[in-house]
Specification:
The structure holds 2 protein chains of 2 kinds.
Chain A (H helix, E strand, L loop, with lengths): L2 H12 L8 H31 L23 H11 L3 H5 L3 H4 L2 E2 L6 E2 L16 H4 L24 H4 L20 E2 L7 E2 L4 H6 L6 H8 L37 H4 L2 E2 L2 E2 L28 H4 L7 H4 L7 H5 L10 E6 L14 E3 L5 E4 L3 E6 L5 E5 L3 E3 L12 E2 L1 E3 L9 E15 L4 E2 L12 H4 L2 H11 L8 E11 L38 H32 L1
Helix pairs in contact in A: 1-2
Chain B lengths: L1 H26 E5 L4 H13 L5 E8 L2 H5 L7 E8 H9 L12 E7 L5 E6 L1 H6 L2 H18 L31
Antiparallel strand pairs in B: 1-5, 2-3, 3-4, 4-5
The chains are: A alpha+beta, B alpha+beta.
């Protein structure tokens, strides 16, 4: 209640018959009221002033704009890193042990060294010989060829993950550096990218946001949503429908809420997926360092209905709770056909075409793409292990080459049925040596495919950079790459219903090794069941008939 | 005589049952599309624009959007609204038929189902038009003929761009006036 109104009420109450008092006391009432009013007003004013004085609680315990090391102009990214390392002395060493830096990941089963640097995918294929472009997504500066110094601490890029201004961009063609001068990008487009203000960026750093991670992971394979399907720029400001955890007006999780880091190593890599986490939810930081699983918070018995909980030993949470991925018109790339690259337009010149939703559909440099949105996943048994083809691995070109084969089966207790995106491709291979080729695509030199449109030169240069023999004969082979889907978790009301799997031609039609009621049938079981039905019917009819007969006989 | 009456009544009952069971399916058609959502929408839009007979696009609505805004999910549903003044004007001029404005503009829905495929949903304009007399029946039979052309696609032609900013694309109704109805 406001103070004047409160006073009016008090005075009115005192005037009431039951509140009789002496005339002397009544005479001092206005004075008392004035004092009370003054005291109350002063307290309110003091509170208001305090609220104005006390600034809102900042996210960080340190205001980096107050650090003298950062209060100067920087010529380039490595200079900023040196300044960061004056306080964060061990940060670069930590980063240098992560996949974000090495682009390598060792297969725990075979010892094979995988990682972006070593596998050939069916999107852009390989960064080898194309480092100048691809390293726009490397957490470092200057990786343009095999001479890159992985030990130089100043080459670590702190800003790509910690920038809070949203102005720090790394473009293809600059070997992982941001642009220090205003440049036209893409070349010849008439569009310009302004030089980065390194001082401003360095002074405003903070914990990684969805936009930081998304600057690479939303735009993998050179297009918004192209690579993953469950990661695209719509997750910068998602609604509840799109991701119940990242909902900007709700839980508003950042990527690192689940992908918690330890010593700069981000948990939850696709090279080391927690496919079947068992047991109760655990307290972060107490039990393990990898909370990047649903069960970390929800346990493996999260439902009120016991029947649903019985499913968790066969189904990944994602199978029911991500009914579709790429749930927007950004969509995701379904296939990339490299065999159509170097096809020119009717005038003999390079051409490009977009699809109905404005996404890349054809480019003489890169070939043809197909896209889809609101995609119904495919489903696979998955135990968290994927066997990747690396550069030089033999292939059988008579079959579709699996870039990665996800491990798991119905008999494997660590396997669950997972939703996956399967990206189809058609890409070059060495017809004599039978392995996928590395091609030099990006660049302005004469051997770059996107410059000279000559496959032979591009493959020769790429294979030389990869230190692999090349027979000189190439063809195109069908490939497939499988991506477990784990983002874009829908609200629980939108989870799959029983009949979407437990039916003929349901979602899990292709899943083998388990008996699913309503999907599967057993001849003998069916025969026994129908026999029982017929016998029951026969018994009922016989019983009725006998009763009619006996009643007529009595009558 | 009893047999005749019984036979007649049984025939009536069977006919009523058939109508009850089949009418819904006859009123509307569902056709699978060989293309994805956006391309199907874009190709229908182009066909509408090139159909002649006064056809224009009145709007493009995303029926799934309001559900998303309220925090839920449904598979995408896009509704292409098209109108021909050649066909709408004679109906709207007739006071006894103006209530049929409920059916305007013509809607063609494009949606995805759980099999991952894209489908086109159409009203059987000829059948429904026939329920309202010869004048409406004649007009709607022409609408039906044009509708059939809207969903004929030439796959050899590259995918056109989807027209997102057609009037009423954002869901407003007033803007649809520019579209012709």
């Amino acid at each position: 209640m406001a103070v004047p109104a409160l006073l009016q009420t008090v005075v009115a109450d005192m005037r009431a018959p039951q509140f009789m008092m002496s005339s002397r006391f009544r005479s001092v009432l206005p004075l008392l009221a004035a004092v009370a009013l003054l005291a109350t007003s002063t307290a309110h004013a003091a509170n208001a002033k305090l609220e104005q004085i006390i600034a809102p609680v900042p996210h960080s315990t340190a205001d980096h704009s107050k650090f003298k090391e950062l209060n100067r102009e920087f010529k380039n990214g490595p200079e900023v890193t040196k300044a960061c390392l004056t306080c964060h002395t061990e940060a670069a060493k930590q980063v240098q042990h992560t996949k974000h830096w090495t682009w390598e990941a060792t297969d725990p089963k075979t010892g094979k060294v995988r990682g972006k640097k070593n596998i050939i995918n069916n999107y852009c294929t390989s960064p080898v010989s194309n480092e100048n472009d691809c390293m726009a997504c490397h957490a470092g500066y200057g990786w343009k060829d095999d001479k890159f110094d992985f030990k130089a601490e100043q080459n670590v890029d702190c800003l790509i993950c910690h920038d809070q201004t949203g102005t720090y961009r790394k473009l293809p063609g600059f070997a992982g550096h941001p642009v220090y001068k205003r440049v036209e990008f893409p070349h010849g487009s008439g569009k310009f990218v302004e030089a980065v203000d390194l001082k401003k960026v360095a002074q405003s750093i903070g914990m990684p946001t969805r936009s930081n991670c998304g600057s690479c992971h939303f735009f993998g394979a050179g297009g918004n949503g192209a690579k993953h399907g469950d990661l695209d720029s719509s997750l910068q400001h998602p609604g509840k429908y799109l991701d119940v955890h990242m909902d900007e007006k709700g839980l508003n999780f950042s990527c690192t809420t689940c992908h918690a880091t330890s010593h700069h190593e981000v948990s939850g890599s696709r090279y080391d997926t927690a496919a079947a986490v068992k047991g109760p939810a655990h307290i972060r930081g107490k039990k393990d360092e990898s909370p990047a699983s649903c069960q970390s918070c929800h346990s493996n018995k999260p439902h009120h209905e016991a029947m649903l909980n019985q499913h968790t030993d066969k189904l990944a949470c994602q199978t029911c709770h991500i009914p579709e991925y790429a749930r927007n018109q950004i969509g995701t790339e379904a296939s990339w056909d490299w065999s159509q690259a170097t096809t020119m337009g009717p005038d003999g010149k390079p051409m490009a075409r977009k699809d109905s939703a404005g996404r890349r559909a054809f480019d003489s440099k890169k070939g043809a793409w197909e896209w889809d949105s609101y995609v119904i996943p495919e489903y696979r048994w998955y135990n968290g292990y994927s066997d990747y083809k690396v550069i030089g691995d033999k292939i059988d070109p008579s079959k579709t080459v699996q870039i990665n084969e996800v491990g798991g089966s119905a008999n494997d207790p660590d396997s669950r049925i997972w939703p996956v995106k399967v990206h189809r491709g058609k890409q070059p291979y060495d017809k004599v040596n039978n392995y996928l080729t590395v091609q030099h695509t990006a660049g302005e030199d004469d051997s770059a495919l996107w410059h000279n449109y000559d496959w032979q030169k591009a493959i020769t240069a790429g294979m030389k950079a990869a230190n692999l023999p090349y027979s000189g004969e190439f063809g195109f082979v069908d490939t497939a790459m499988t991506w477990p889907i784990t983002h874009m978790v829908a609200p629980k009301g939108d989870a799959l219903g029983c009949a979407q799997c437990h039916s003929k031609n349901g979602r899990l039609q292709g899943i083998e090794g388990i008996y699913m009621p309503a999907r599967d049938s057993n001849r003998w079981l069916d025969l026994i069941g129908w026999t029982l039905v017929v016998l029951t019917l026969f018994g009922v009819l016989m019983h009725g008939a006998l009763r009619i007969y006996s009643s007529r006989k009595k009558g | 005589m009893l047999k005749v009456i019984t036979g007649f009544l049984v025939g009536m009952a069977v006919a009523a049952l058939l109508i009850y069971k089949l009418a819904a399916g006859m009123m509307f058609r569902e056709v699978p599309s060989q293309f994805g959502m956006e391309e199907t929408v874009a190709r229908i839009q182009q066909n509408v624009l090139h159909a002649g007979n006064g056809w224009s696009l009145s709007g493009l609505r995303n029926a799934a959007k309001p559900i998303e805004m309220s925090g839920g999910n449904v598979l995408p549903v896009m509704m292409i609204e098209a109108c021909s003044t050649n066909y709408s004007a004679p109906i709207l001029k007739d006071d006894s038929l103006r209530f049929l404005s409920n059916l305007m503009p013509c809607k063609i829905s494009v949606y995805k189902k759980n099999d991952g495929k894209t489908y086109i949903g159409l009203m059987n304009a000829e059948l429904i038009g026939g329920l309202f007399g010869s004048k409406v029946g004649d007009i709607m039979s022409k609408v039906a003929a044009d509708q059939a052309k809207f969903i004929q696609f030439d796959a050899s032609q590259p995918a056109p761009a989807m027209i997102k900013n057609a009037p009423a694309a954002s869901g407003g109704s007033g803007a649809a006036a520019d579209g012709g109805c």
